[in-house]
Amino acid sequence: MAIDDVDMEREDLAYDPDQDPEETRDIRRQFRHLEQELTENQDLSTDEVAEKLRSANRLFKRVQAINEATKDSGLLVRFSQISAAKARAMKSGSGAFDVDDFVARLITYMGGRKPVAPADDGDEDEEESEYDAGAPLDWERIARRALAKSRRVPAMDFMLGPLSIEPKKRNAVKRAKLEKNKEDMKKPQEITEDDITRSENETTKNVATIERILMNTEGSVNLFKFIVNPKDFGQSVENLFYLSFLIRDGKCALEITEDTAEPVIMLCEQPTQEDYENGLVKHQIVMEFDMETWRRAIEVFDIKEAMIPQRPKSEMRIGQKWYG
To answer: Are 243 and 210 in contact (CB under 8 A)?
Structure first.
């Protein structure tokens, strides 16, 4: 609170986290009571505000923890707001500034007031003005008083700037209209279904090709030896993709051998709808096949040649251009 009322050198102002809990609760209760009184009573007099401020100062002497000091700070802010409001509401003297009285005093100071006539002179008109309208006013006297407060040299200037000013005329810029040559304009190319020619490297045909290769293979074959192309990683991925259609349709079986734990595939009889009705269940697996697995398979299974022939790169023609 107020620094004048609190001895900042006292040892009992030090932070003490082990202060008596009962005393701490009592301090907080009194702080809340003071804050409530300031909030509810808006018409406190200056003496009442000062008395409550002294009470808060006495209470602050018992503060030894951060929470109570924070409440004291909030209370100080509230006192500041109340004091500022009362200062704005104060009026000095008889009230507002009297312009007529100021002008009368100014005229008297510059020597423009007529001397008051003696009381025994009954020939004077009682309604005559006390100012001498013809007497010159001493403006230099008031000017000297004004110069004592300001050393700025007065300068003359026009209120509206120089008299010879001319408004600026904005030049209208004409923009040339862009005219396009109709001969250089081209219509977008119209593409129909006949213009799109796909290569023979289609999914259906590739799946059928892989099925024929499996038919010509006796017994089971290692999965990696069948799909891996040692010269093309992309086509190895495509081979696994096409093979998945045969496994999905039940034309090809995938199993793990018991002795070597190798994945092998072989052709099988496609199940019928009756088999599924009798309890046959489809199973799905997710196989990760990245370039590291591709290289490892080539090394482990010593793959020199691809069982599935190399296919030409797929191309598609759209209009007059080919895309690979």
So the answer is: yes
